[in-house]
Amino acid sequence: MNKANDLIAKGIDIIDFGPGEPDFPTPGAISAAAKKAIDDGFTKYTNALGCNDLRKAIARTYRKRYGIELGPEHVIAGTGGKQELFNLMLALVSDGDEVIIPSPYWVSFPDQVTFAGGTPVFAHTRAAEGFRPSLRCIERLATEKTRGMIINSPANPTGAVIPEDELRRIVELCHARGWFLVFDETYEFFLYDGVPHASPAKWFNEFPETIIVVNSMSKTYSMTGWRLGYAIADAEIVSGLGKIQSHSTSNPSSISQFAAIEALQSGDEEIRKMLDAYIERRRWLVPALNSIPGIECRLPDGAFYVFPKVSQLYGKGGITDSTTFAAYLLDAARVAVVPGVAFGADDYVRISYAVSLPRIQEGVGRIQEALARLNS
Prior knowledge:
Blueprint: H1 2-9, E1 15-16, H2 28-39, H3 52-66, E2 75-78, H4 81-92, E3 98-103, H5 108-115, E4 119-124, H6 135-139, E5 146-152, H7 164-177, E6 180-184, E7 211-216, E8 229-232, H8 235-246, H9 254-266, H10 268-290, E9 305-306, H11 322-332, E10 335-336, E11 338-339, E12 349-352, H12 357-375
Helix pairs in contact: 2-9, 3-9, 4-5, 4-8, 10-12
């Protein structure tokens, strides 16, 4: 990706399928709320856990959605969902603890566990099952060192969405074993073909010491640069996260907090607009990739990525793995993709369709031409 950015800086037209962020502007009402916060002088420190109004708004959103009892004492806001994931590992994982992570995984999960002194243990999912994590693949990895697990659904990079019945079984396993379950639902609103989102938040009152939900304003409201995410957890866990956060970054941006309150109150229509665009892009992209010899691509359940298998092309033109495949596309097609090895799946690459449809179509055309030369 650094090489791609260097080429772009030199004026070379690179079609970048790497970004993990929406290609839409932040909705106007959200930006207007942030400007008002500045004009009103809301530019000072807040509570390290986030201002009370934002934490109340997040709790209110989840109460309304899932019919649970939830208050601001169960919520912490931070500098992106990534910060709360990081804080959680520091708060909950000790040296020698094992944390189960379904694979393919988001790139930061293993490093966050390792930084906290733990050991990531990978539960390998199957493409034939849509890369969805299952109780079966998780339970067999349990040891006396297991401290908890992390699930991301809809998942980056695969788009996999875990069914509710399977998620319930995993929650019950975690509860029975005394594990935590960190559930990252950053892409919760980007779902396709009627696939429903399952969130353990609906069982929070039943398993308050087990379930931890992490979410973000970044993808849902196209606020990646605003750096505002949050976690919902037992009040004791939130207190621990707050202690860590108070000594690292303190509160998230006061202005971003004000914008996030507006997003939670008025952002639904903008979500629908983005989803409609993703549906159209996904509908075109997957068949187009599958028409290219050597590429196999399944329809993702959610998020805005496809994760095509490209290993049939290894052994040609100096390509030996996902990294050299990505390098070939950058050199031969001026297209940037993310090697699957970063996600624990070297037979694959990740392609983001948070890119306009005309650019997607041009990029796939370039890939087709480059791979045709390779196959000849």
